[in-house]
Amino acid sequence: MSGVERYLIPIAGNDPVLVTRPGTIRHVVVFLPAPTEPRSGRFGAFAQWAKLWAEYGVATVVSDLPGGGDSTGEVQPTLWSRQAALVVEQAHQLAGGRPMHLLARGAATALLPVTHEAGVRIGLSPPTAEECRRALAALRGDGQPDADSLTTAIGLPDADSDLDRSVAPLLDWAADQLAEIRWDLELHAGHRSPRAASALVFSDVDPLARLEVTRVGIGHVLAGLFDELADTANWG
């Protein structure tokens, strides 16, 4: 990718954020991964999209939320919120007044602000409050594993008791936050009913977990939408 830079920015008291910056920036997108989801690896969708979108002049800032993915940070909802706020602050500086969009997956949609004027908020497989609680119960062994709730909330279809300590505080907190819709555009599986006024529907339970062609397809669809999404008149 000619003219594209990739680098880490340290954030005090948190893991660094990963920036992909094209030579000419037209939009900036903040990625907030689901709990337990690495920035690259088994899914790797965010890393894949960051490279793809750089070709469209879209810079990306990817957080690594405390306790999840590649993070070494302590698991506390307050630290989760703090890092998300710092990531958004870095993205604002990078955007320099250009449109800035927020994309969160799973329970990380609880970190999206209630209102957002700099661009569009995108929820990828956003769980309901009840799904967060069902996922939490499954992790703690207090209920039957619910693959749909687990996949939607944390990006993994199977309950793992080892995740209880790292994920439980976040799911408990997210359940309260997700009583309110915090996204403008929703990407979700076809069997689910969207909560947002605008939605893109995909067939997989988790549109990132199976076919690479699905992940690439979503990336291309979103890349082509950013100009339209940045025009707030289209959200009237």
Describe this protein's structure.
The protein is built from six helices and eight strands, in the order βββαβαββαααββα. By secondary structure, the protein is an alpha/beta fold. Strand 1 and strand 2 form a beta hairpin. The model has no long low-confidence stretch (mean pLDDT 79).
- State the helical fraction: 25-40%
Compressed to H and E, one letter per element, the order equals EEEHEHEEHHHEEH
Termini separation comes to: 36 Å
Rg over C-alpha atoms, rounded to the nearest angstrom:
17 Å
Q: What is the overall silhouette? A: globular
Q: Give the number of helices.
A: 6
Structural class: alpha/beta
Describe the sheet with the most strands. Answer: 8 strands, mixed
Unreliable stretches covering 5 or more consecutive residues: none
Strand content: 15-25%
Please count the beta strands (DSSP E, at least 2 residues each): 8
How are the strands ordered across the major sheet? 1-2-4-3-5-6-7-8
